[in-house]
Every structure is written in C-alpha cells, then in structure tokens.
Design goal:
It is a single chain. Helices cover about 45% and strands about 15% of the residues. The protein has about 140 residues and is of the alpha/beta class. A hairpin with a 4-residue loop joins strand 1 and strand 2. It is elongated and about 50 Å long.
C-alpha cells in the first residue's frame, strides 16, 4: 500500500497542474458504493462525483496512471485515435498490422470498460508495431487491391 501511495506522490504535481486533484481516502463504505472491493484502488470521479471510473491497469505504474487520469479528464485527448468511415478504410488498407476496436458510446458500460483497458496497453501495442484505432462504424467493406 505504501508503494502505491509513493507512486501517486510522484505524479501528484503533474495531475494538479492538469486540474486533477488526488485525494486519498480510507472510507471502505464509499469504496463499496462506487464498486471498489479490492484495495488499494484508484477511482476517477467526473461531474461532481456522479460518475466513477475505476482504474484497471497496473497500480504500481505511475506513468500509466497519469495517462489514464488525463484521458478520464478529457476523453478527446484519448491515446487511441477515433477513426470513422472512409478514413478508417484507408487506415486499415495502409497498415501493416492494425487492431480496430469497434464499440458504441451509448448504453454499453462494458464497451467503456474495455476501452479503458485498451488505453492501458496501447503503448505496448505500438512498440510491437501494431497500430490501434477505435471506431463506432459498424459496417465496413474493404476492397482487396
């Protein structure tokens, strides 16, 4: 537990500059209320506490945690690029290796949870020279050249 707190202390200043205060709590009842049953955990609250998102990545990696918090604060700053329609088709055809996450933004809590997990591994995927994009385009016809 102390190691996790030390990791968070190293990113506290960067998070504060980005407008993300880090607060530590020992309220087990609150943790259960937002769906946390394993401690220690990191939870990001949005809209004055109405929405809670639980961090599912490596809790000992401060860089990954900071990146995740930045994405939670500003989803338009997501590490996995959103690509739609013709741009998606072109991206797929030009790529040597690509992973495309197809999802819906509305009514799919599992989609958002999976997207959060993918945000945690996108740097590792890029190191393997695999491009990763996301799309809400449900149908796509690719032409072989």
């Amino acid at each position: 537990m102390r190691h996790v707190l030390q990791e968070l202390e190293t990113i506290d200043d960067d998070a504060e500059v980005a407008g993300i205060p880090i607060v530590k709590l020992e309220d087990k009842q609150l943790a259960k209320t937002v769906g946390v049953f394993a401690l220690p955990s990191i939870v990001f609250f949005r809209n004055f506490g109405e929405e809670a998102t639980i961090y599912a990545g490596d809790i000992k990696n401060e860089e990954t945690i900071l990146e995740w918090m930045m994405v939670q604060k500003d989803p338009s700053n997501e590490a996995i690029e959103e690509v739609e329609g013709e741009e998606l088709r072109t991206t797929i055809q030009k790529s040597q290796a690509i992973a495309v996450f197809v999802y819906t933004r509305e009514g799919c809590e599992e989609c958002l949870s999976i997207l959060t997990e993918l945000e945690n591994i996108d740097d590792d995927v890029a190191r393997q020279k695999i491009e990763m994009v996301k799309t809400t385009t449900l149908s796509l016809q690719l032409k072989r050249e």
